[in-house]
């Protein structure tokens, strides 16, 4: 299992990024969560097999139509065996 924490910068709020990410993660078989931050970034944690996480990270680097991803900072974390994928409130 692999778990990563990701901060995505760019034009990533107001473009359906979080809800599309949830669908992409679910389709890939990954678990975790995503939320907007008040500084305009999107924060997420993704957990699954290496292949599942890599597939989600590849999508996150591009984002949905209408978004502009400037960067995605990825930090490895210890797996927590998360179940499901949530869209959390803004922090």
UniProtKB/TrEMBL annotation:
The keyword Hydrolase applies. It is an enzyme of class 3 (hydrolase). Keywords: Hydrolase. Signal peptide: none annotated. It comes from the Bacteria. Its EC number is 3.6.1.7. The active site is at residues 18, 36. Pfam families: Acylphosphatase. Residues 3-89 form the Acylphosphatase-like domain. InterPro entries: Acylphosphatase (IPR020456), Acylphosphatase-like_dom (IPR001792), Acylphosphatase-like_dom_sf (IPR036046), Acylphosphatase_CS (IPR017968). It catalyses: an acyl phosphate + H2O = a carboxylate + phosphate + H(+). PANTHER family: ACYLPHOSPHATASE. Belongs to the acylphosphatase family. This is acylphosphatase. The lineage of its organism: Bacteria, Bacillati, Actinomycetota, Actinomycetes, Micrococcales.
